[in-house]
């Protein structure tokens, strides 16, 4: 699933089980858009999350989220489940 954001960046969510929105639909940040799944060849249910800027260049998803006010705990860090 790909989501185009107002700033031209695109987020890509892979291995989803079910899309909960329609193509072309506008969504808000608090809207659930999909359920986590294990489609493809994953080791188990999880979300594969990528971000590309408006020029199509891959960017660090944690930094992209942090710039938008989201807290992302590092894997193995405080608050992490892993």
Automatic annotation (TrEMBL):
Chain segments annotated as transmembrane: none
Signal peptide region: none
Domain called M23ase beta-sheet core: residue spans: 3-61
Top-level taxonomic group: Bacteria
Listed Pfam families: Peptidase_M23
PANTHER family: MUREIN HYDROLASE ACTIVATOR ENVC (PTHR21666:SF270), PEPTIDASE-RELATED (PTHR21666)
UniProt cross-references to CDD domains, sorted A to Z: M23_peptidase (cd12797)
Protein name (record): M23ase beta-sheet core domain-containing protein
